[in-house]
Design brief:
Blueprint: E1 3-8, H1 12-23, E2 28-31, E3 48-50, H2 66-77, H3 83-92, H4 97-102, E4 121-123, H5 127-142, E5 145-147, E6 154-158, E7 161-167, E8 170-179, H6 188-195, E9 209-210, H7 219-227, E10 232-233, E11 239-245, E12 266-269, H8 283-286, H9 290-295, E13 302-307, E14 322-324, H10 327-334, H11 338-351, E15 352-353, E16 366-367, E17 386-398, E18 401-402, E19 409-412, E20 415-422, H12 440-460
Helix pairs in contact: 1-5, 1-12, 2-3, 3-12, 10-11
Pfam family, one: FAD_binding_2
Protein name: FAD-dependent tricarballylate dehydrogenase TcuA
GO molecular function: oxidoreductase activity
Length: about 475
């Protein structure tokens, strides 16, 4: 065997798996498709981990119990989640931080202000880039062999068991393997295939931007689903999809391109009409539905409109908004029909029933007699200067993946493999059928990365996989 445990991928889930297997005494080889400078996949763009806790706990304030976490996840997924696996992730999120710290990850003190997540999420000092760099340093120090620019395009599998992987014409054999190579969000052809054409013969997905890595082409995922006939889960059109600045780059724009003022104003489409409740819930619980909402609008574009009262109440994006001293001027600058835009804004302003505005709570500022309603934080947009941000769908990662159980084993015709495991975006659809809530992707990747690494080590020793989360 070339190694005991082969890990395919270079993001959070892959690194957690590699570290777990190495800690168990295995020889570990990790293959990262990106160059060293772009290592880490989408994990390099992350900022935090959603964590269950029953009382104040180091960097987390108050409490965020299991049932509340579960209800938050249940709400955003609309029930499209495996409760057993979801609760496994939730419970694992409460105990993983000490292990992360042992591998060099640092957490920053609780945040306050516009993000409202000091209670539910632990933030990485230095963000996701610092986290993946810490894991890579720890892996190298422990003796994990790492190869960059080493994409894997196919596997040899016999009777449901991993035999070898092929990378750039080289055959690599191992006693067990962990797949953690990400989704297919960077593959423009696959996005076209998934989303299809609209009634006008256009490809909606051509207007999507990719928030993260350009290296998640889904080659290995396609191979597993189509050629190896692994059990699948998820809708190929479902993804963590965020409304981002239309001026963002095609790849790797990251967090700074997100537009976070949606709940403080109104959003209109290309026809200058509102289409969804901007104040439905706190922004960290709703930001990830807005990419899909914009994707369903004409031309896959929308415009977030705020006035001077909103300034200073949201995380500013990398690009400044389009500024105007009047609403008609703003409509002109955004290329929207002025008459329709003013009708929309006048109707909204007249419908506002302003109570005690408080963006840190589900306040009593709402609309009445206008559709769609705005449930909270509804205030007239009437104070100059006015600002507009053009929005496009920003895809973070896709949810189509491999079906698993609580051993993280890849399944073939319902039967779990004895030595092939999966973690991260390649299986996140088991927990995320649709929707998203901040930090849960890292919770899934950390929990299942560690499970996959532990069980790959057991398989390399000829021992059966263990069900459930890793117990520290």
């Amino acid at each position: 065997m070339d190694t005991d445990v082969l890990v395919i991928g270079g993001g959070n889930a892959a690194l957690c798996a590699a570290l777990m297997a190495r800690e168990a005494g295995m020889r570990v080889l990790l293959l990262e498709s990106a160059p060293r400078a772009w290592r880490g996949g989408n994990s390099a763009h992350t900022r935090n981990l959603r964590c269950m806790h029953d009382a104040p706990q180091d960097v987390l304030v108050e409490a965020y119990p299991e049932e509340e976490y579960w209800q938050d996840l249940l709400k955003v997924t609309g029930g499209l989640t495996d409760e057993h696996l979801a609760r496994l992730v939730i419970r694992a999120s409460s105990t993983c931080r000490d292990w992360m710290r042992r591998h060099g990850v640092h957490f920053q003190p609780p945040l306050s202000g516009a993000l409202h997540v000091a209670r539910t999420n632990a933030f990485f000092m230095g963000g996701g880039k610092a986290l993946v760099n810490a894991y890579f340093r720890s892996a190298e120090a422990l003796g994990v062999e790492i190869r960059y620019e080493a994409p894997v395009d196919r596997l040899e599998i016999e009777d449901g068991r991993f035999v070898a992987a092929w990378s750039q014409g080289q055959r690599i054999s191992a006693r067990s393997c962990v797949l953690a190579a990400g989704g297919f969000e960077s593959n423009r052809d696959w996005l076209r295939e998934a989303w299809g054409r609209n009634a006008r013969g256009e490809w909606p997905s051509d207007n999507f931007l990719i928030r993260g890595t350009a290296y998640n082409q889904g080659v290995l995922l396609r191979h597993m689903l189509d050629e190896q006939q692994a059990d699948r889960i998820g809708d190929p059109t479902q993804a963590h999809m965020v409304a981002i600045d239309a001026r963002a780059p095609l790849y790797d724009g990251g967090i700074c391109t997100r537009i976070d003022c949606v709940s403080l104003g109104v959003v209109v489409n290309r026809d200058a009409e509102r289409f969804y409740d901007e104040g439905e819930d706190f922004w960290p619980k709703r930001y990830a539905i807005w990419g899909r909402l914009v994707a369903q609008q004409p031309g896959q574009v929308a415009y977030s409109i705020i006035d001077a009262k909103a300034i200073g109440r949201f995380m500013p994006p990398v690009f400044p908004g389009i500024r105007a001293d009047s609403l008609p001027e703003l409509a002109q600058k955004l290329g929207l029909d002025v008459a329709t835009f003013m009708q929309t804004l006048d109707s909204y302003n007249a419908a506002c029933r302003v109570g005690q505005f408080d963006h840190t709570a589900l306040d009593d500022c709402y609309t009445e007699g206008v559709a769609p309603a705005k449930t909270h934080w509804a205030r007239p947009i009437d104070t100059a200067p006015f600002y507009g941000y053009a929005l496009r769908p920003g895809v973070t990662f896709t949810y189509l993946g491999l079906k698993v159980d609580d051993t993280a084993a890849v399944r073939f015709a319902g039967k779990p493999s004895g030595n092939l495991f999966v973690a991260g975006e390649m299986m996140a659809g088991n927990v995320l059928g649709k929707g998203y809530t901040a930090g849960v992707g890292m919770s899934i990747g950390t929990a299942f990365g560690r499970i996959a690494g532990r069980n790959a080590a057991l398989a390399a020793q000829g021992r059966p996989a263990m069900a459930g989360a890793v117990q520290d």
